[in-house]
Q: What sequence folds into this?
């Protein structure tokens, strides 16, 4: 009788352990490809940090932080897996806050830009950064 009870207990504990292991294996993990990129093209010598932007929270949140009070904004352009391209920006020049948005689709790539006076032809932008 003791052997049957021990065998049942071992089988039940083994099943519980296996189910717990499967649950941990299927738990969502933080995406290692989330990114944060700086643009260092501001200031008199064009070597100072303008701001930074990127994606977080498993490529569903896009952000832009302007770190200078210089009348230039900072933006993050992003491309979602459905092909739609959009942007978020922080226009206030280190005046507090930032720009961020939760996207309806996963972001596949992003680009950060310092919006210098004079329009897009004068902006300093990174290349497109793939996050998938």
A:
């Amino acid at each position: 009788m003791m052997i049957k009870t021990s065998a049942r207990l071992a089988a039940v504990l083994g099943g519980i352990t296996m189910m717990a292991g499967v649950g941990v294996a299927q738990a969502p993990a933080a995406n290692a490809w989330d990114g944060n990129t700086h643009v260092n093209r501001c200031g008199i010598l064009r070597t100072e940090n303008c701001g930074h932007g990127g994606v977080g929270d498993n490529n569903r949140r896009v952000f832009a932080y302007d770190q200078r009070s210089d009348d230039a904004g900072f933006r993050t352009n992003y491309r979602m897996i459905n092909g739609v391209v959009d942007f978020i920006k922080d226009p206030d020049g280190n005046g507090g806050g930032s720009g961020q948005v939760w996207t309806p689709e996963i972001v596949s790539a992003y680009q950060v830009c310092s919006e210098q006076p004079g329009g897009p032809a004068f902006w300093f932008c990174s290349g497109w950064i793939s996050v998938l």
Remarks:
- Strands lie at 35-39, 51-56, 61-66, 73-80, 85-90, 99-102, 107-115, 124-125, 129-130.
- Residues 2-26 form the longest helix (25 residues).
- Helices lie at 2-26.
